[in-house]
Specification:
heterodimer, A: 19% strand, B: alpha+beta, five-stranded antiparallel β-sheet, four-stranded mixed β-sheet
Chain lengths: 431, 324
């Protein structure tokens, strides 16, 4: 496909914007808004993270407004407005003159609310629902030609991740800008340290290890009023089809750091895991995983994640090379790579990721993190599959697995029996 | 509210408090009452304006924790199983509640989404990233457990105890080059907190008043707190409560990230909403400060509680504003 240069594209878009054309013209999507174009944000998923992302984007750059919102629960809408009501009258949001501009008719409810947000005239969408919905939302947002901020992870299973890779290819063709919520990639000490590792600061990398070990997180107990689907959606963390399990939902951050250090992804996983918890309100996910990942050229990585209280905790990464070691969060051979004062002065990573995305949009550069976040998502999925099944799992086997965990139909009147806890040696990820 | 007072009569000597039903214990030291000069003189090296003018302050006797509160102690509260869920929130792990000395409810911390020790250390290491609200709730929980009314020190009590009768920049004199014998600060901390009580104590036996972690005081912060005082009067047990907004409250003593001058006895620091910037949720947690890995606390117990602090609790909720 031939594309005009960025400079030409910018001029072209300015012209179309001036002519009042909001959608694609002549096969070219209107994603590279001119520098004065309002960033008109559609938020899909208005929970704690979605509301947080709305504050972050409003604090990240001038001329931004929240324009449309979507959720499946009405009380999330109410909560969103409650959270944001005073936000634009203070701090950076006020300084930038940013706005909350979500008229009644742009507040959408239901499983198809995301489509309505995409059709509402937004040019920037934030995908902040639980992960199971992400492939569907990414596919639609890319098709609609939007700039995208997508939370991590971007899928929970093989069919989902294949949709995401397809969306990535389409986004690349269209020149869309996409930033992912793997925010360490926008965090100054990580950025500076990993840059140095890429330059060979500790020689050839032989081994890495990463942890996300912490206490128990949360659950929502089932009440008599709740249907199967309502309970599972409200208790989403504890159901693999919505959450991906904690290795995918949470530990992806550390796995992503290792992939970033390698500029690559592993080709194999050998792992184990299970759960100590027995309360059915904790769904069917595991509470601990330990995975050995193999990268090309005999580089190995040990990943460990746990959600059990009263154990040793650590959320961290370490990299070992022929010429030393590094904590990619900010030190090489024990020496900090960025002065603490500079870290303190830098903008927080959750705001920075939006600043970077909007910068790309306005300058005509293209940023697209969908491939890296998809790779890290699949890395975590591959590890989970290995632990669940008790088998060695290759990249291709994980990528091509046929088990589609997303329900064919979402209907509160239907039955959705809670899946059993996966048993190693018996669980299969192909249908 | 009188029933919420600590009614036990106990000799005014040092004692070891064991947290009931556990093996976890900590030491409390008696701090005799007295009058001292709070703040620093204009001539003190490294001084900030908010430390003056100096004023005479009267302090009544109290006990103070010999060391900063550790994760061992704080985790008993975090992971407390004896709490019960409130009406309407059945089963949600967050928001379990427990009765305080005065009969109202204490909420235990929500489970954090990450490891709040940041890998600095846990056994015998100071609790960090704990909000002012959480530190105050911990005190109420501890009071309910033990029957003694523990709370955060007032800023006046804190400095009185830190000075331990001295008038110099540090409790060992003015020579900052000796600070390493008494404190973990930026020059010797290796960029992390350290187990409590390893460095030399101050003249009254308190450890880590300089450095390691900066410590919460009850008071709110304003840079002109001292200039508002009546110069001709001795301030009796002054306290400047700010319990409704999340910030700013005073932390004292400096920490492992600070240079020597920030660890001086008179140095003051306000808490700030920047201490929450890596919390991506809205509303942000009222229990954890994701970016306050240099802040902890220590507790005190008044021999006879001052009237304005009886039954005190933080009024912060998830809806509270960031500034007063």
């Amino acid at each position: 496909m031939t594309t005009p240069t960025n400079a030409h594209r910018r001029d072209f878009i300015k012209a179309t914007a001036a002519a009042g054309l909001a959608t694609a013209v002549g096969g070219l999507p209107a994603v590279h808004a001119g520098s004065n174009e309002t960033i008109r944000v559609g938020l899909i998923g208005c929970g704690g993270r979605g509301s947080g992302a709305a504050k972050d984007v409003l604090s990240s750059a001038p001329n931004v407004e929240i324009y449309a919102i979507a959720d499946i629960w009405k009380e999330r809408h109410d909560r969103f407005f409650n959270e944001l009501k005073d936000f634009t009258s203070q701090g950076k949001a006020k300084e930038y003159g940013n706005r909350l501009n979500v008229s009644e008719e742009r507040r959408f409810l239901g499983f198809d609310a995301y489509k309505k947000v995409l059709d509402s005239g937004v040019n920037y969408v934030m995908l902040c629902t639980p992960p199971g919905f992400r492939p569907m939302h990414l596919e639609a947002a890319v098709k609609a030609g939007k700039n995208i901020f997508t939370e991590k992870p971007v899928a929970v299973d093989g069919p989902g991740i294949r949709k995401v890779y397809a969306a990535y290819e389409e986004a690349k063709q269209k020149g869309l800008n996409i930033v992912a919520g793997t925010q360490r990639r926008h965090q100054l000490p990580y950025v500076e340290t990993i840059k140095k590792l890429h330059e060979g600061a500790i020689g050839d990398i032989h081994f890495m290890r990463c942890y996300w070990n912490q206490g128990v997180l949360w659950k929502v107990d089932r009440t008599e009023k709740m249907s199967d689907l309502e309970w599972q959606l409200r208790n989403w963390y504890n159901f693999m089809w919505i959450c991906g399990d904690h290795i995918v939902e949470q530990h992806i951050h550390n796995i992503d750091v290792c992939n970033w250090v390698m500029n690559d992804h592993p080709i194999k996983a050998r792992g184990s895991g299970f759960r100590t918890r027995t309360d059915p309100n904790f769904g069917h996910i595991y509470d601990h995983f330990s995975i050995e990942y193999e990268y090309p050229k005999n580089v190995f990585m040990h990943s460990m994640c746990r959600q059990i209280s009263g154990c040793w905790d650590s959320v961290s990464e370490q990299v070992f090379g022929s010429n030393g070691h590094s904590d990619p969060a900010g030190s090489i051979n024990g020496k900090p790579t960025v002065a603490r004062e500079a870290v303190r002065k830098a903008q927080g990573p959750y705001v920075q990721e939006h600043t970077d995305l909007i910068e790309a949009i306005r300058s005509g550069k293209t940023v697209n993190e969908l491939k890296t976040v998809a790779d890290s998502t699949l890395t975590a999925i591959m590890g989970r599959m290995s632990a669940y099944s008790g088998k060695e799992v290759t990249w291709d086997a994980a990528l091509n697995s046929t088990l589609d965990t997303f329900p064919k139909v979402l209907d509160f009147n239907e039955k959705y029996p809670a899946p059993p806890v996966p048993i190693p040696g018996k669980y299969k990820f192909n249908t | 509210m009188v029933e919420s007072q600590d009614k036990s009569s106990q000799p005014f000597t040092k004692y070891t408090q064991t947290i009931p039903d556990t093996n976890v214990k900590f030491e409390m030291l008696p701090i005799a009452g007295g009058v001292y000069l709070q703040g620093s003189p204009d001539s003190e090296a490294g001084r900030n304006k908010d430390e003056g003018p100096q004023s005479k302050v009267e302090i009544k006797p109290f006990w103070m924790g010999k060391c900063e509160v550790t994760w061992d102690e704080y985790d008993l509260f975090r992971n407390s199983e004896e709490t019960h869920p409130p009406e309407g929130e059945k089963g949600r792990l967050i928001r379990f509640k427990f009765k305080s000395l005065s009969g109202d409810e204490i909420t235990r911390p929500t489970p954090p989404y990450t490891d709040m020790t940041f890998g600095y250390g846990k056994d015998n290491y100071p609790a960090i990233n704990v909000s002012h609200f959480a530190a105050m709730e911990y005190c109420r929980w501890l009071s309910a457990k033990t029957g003694h009314a523990y709370r955060l020190p007032t800023e006046a009590e804190w400095e009185y105890a830190a000075r331990a009768g001295t008038t110099t920049a540090y409790s060992f004199g003015d020579d900052a080059s000796k600070l390493g014998e008494y404190a973990w600060y930026d020059a010797n901390s290796d960029s992390k907190t350290h187990a409590v009580g390893q460095k030399k104590a101050n003249p009254w036996g308190l450890h880590d008043m300089h450095g390691n972690v900066a410590e919460w005081c009850l008071d709110g912060y304003s840079k002109d707190d001292y200039s508002k005082r009546d110069k001709n009067k001795v301030q009796v047990q002054p306290v400047n409560l700010q319990l409704k907004a999340r910030f700013p409250n005073v932390v004292r003593g400096g920490s492992w990230v600070d240079e020597a001058k920030t660890c001086r006895s008179a140095a003051r620091m306000p808490s700030d909403k920047d201490w929450l910037r890596q919390d991506p949720q809205s509303p942000q947690s009222i229990w954890y400060l994701t970016d306050a890995d240099f802040v902890g606390f220590r507790i005190v117990r008044a021999v006879e509680e001052q009237k304005d602090l009886i039954g005190i609790k933080s009024l912060v909720t998830r809806q509270s504003p960031y500034k007063p």
